[in-house]
Amino acid sequence: MCFDRTFPAGVMPDYARRLEAEGLDQLWVIEDCFFTAGVTLAATALAVTERLTVGIGIMPAVARTAAITAMEVATLANLAPGRFVAGIGHGVQDWMGQMGVRPASPLTALDETITAVRRLLAGEEVTAAGDYVTLDRVQLDQPPALVPPVIAGVQQAKSLALAGRVADGIILVEGAGPSYVEWSLAQAGRSADDLRVVTFTMLAVADDPREAYGWVAPFVAGLVAERRPAFTILPYFDEMAARVERDGPDGLVSMPAEWWREIGAIGTIDDAHAHIAALEASGVRSINVFPGPELDDALAQIPQVGALARR
């Protein structure tokens, strides 16, 4: 499961322990500006658990220098060998602008950052004079004994192609279904066998599927309106967009069940199982439920997610 940006930092120890007790494998921390800090939350979760793998999705490439990012990742990896995954992405460009670090070329910034971080984690002495990463004989004093995966949180075709060249995997956010996974791997130019695929997945289950659709329709309508690539690659995207334009979120509630199963574990419990199975068949190694912004709702979902994991 994911730990939403809106959750109070102080609940992380209990949240992480609950996930581990439920038998879940991973916890992904959402780092969005200007909410809670992913590195601190990840360290807390690792410290209070023994088995849970913790990932950060994502650290913006330009929010920290490449050397500091490598130091943070190496420290977490050494605190809990084999239990940390580092996600790095572009970050929301408006937020980068607010901090005065918005790059003229987000692609170049991500390329240089991931490349430098991975070299530093491998124990290399790195000198670089790029557009966004400048290093002069930098070498980590304590590179990780077990180097963690560095994966790219990206969405668009060019960014996916970059990830395929320089990263260990990709993070695909809410709305990512099997069709988008397959499209993303094609853009990356790699197979699921050697590129780790992580998805953040919406979960809404009820005996009456229309009830479940209604819970998430406002959120999905927003993703459709912003033309998220996970939706635009679908053959029925134009119809989805027309429904939103005509009737708002209510227009999505009457969508065919197979459309809902494509974009999330949404509908009946059988629909949720079908979505998870389709993601696994497309090559996803890590499926993580993205909860709503209310902590109580997320806590109530933990047993549901545990049941899905044990299905």
Q: How would you describe this protein?
A:
The chain is an alpha/beta fold. α12 crosses α13. The two termini are 16 Å apart. The relative contact order is 0.13. The chain has a domain at 2-173 and 290-309: Alpha-Beta Barrel (TIM Barrel), CATH 3.20.20. The protein is 48% helix and 17% strand. It has helices at residues 12-21, 38-47, 66-79, 93-98, 106-121, 157-166, 178-188, 209-225, 229-232, 237-247, 250-253, 257-263, 269-282, 295-309, and strands at residues 2-3, 26-29, 53-60, 84-89, 126-129, 134-138, 150-153, 169-172, 196-201, 203-205, 265-267, 286-289. The chain has 14 helices and twelve strands.
| CATH level-4 homologous superfamily of the domain at 2-173 and 290-309 | Luciferase-like domain
Whole-number radius of gyration?
19 Å
Order of helices and strands: EHEHEHEHHEEEHEHEEHHHHHEHEH
Kindly report the CATH topology of the domain at 2-173 and 290-309. Answer: TIM Barrel
Strand order in the sheet with the most strands: 1-2-3-4-7-8-9-12
So what's the overall shape? globular
CATH class of the domain at 2-173 and 290-309: Alpha Beta
End-to-end Cα distance, whole Å, is: 16 Å
Structural classification: alpha/beta
Low-confidence stretches: none
- How many strand units? 12
Helicity range of the residues? 40-55%
In terms of DSSP E residues, the strand content is 15-25%
Please describe the biggest sheet, giving its number of strands, its sense, and whether it closes into a barrel. 8 strands, parallel
Kindly state the mean pLDDT as a whole number? 96
CATH arch. level architecture of the domain at 2-173 and 290-309: Alpha-Beta Barrel
Number of contiguous helices: 14
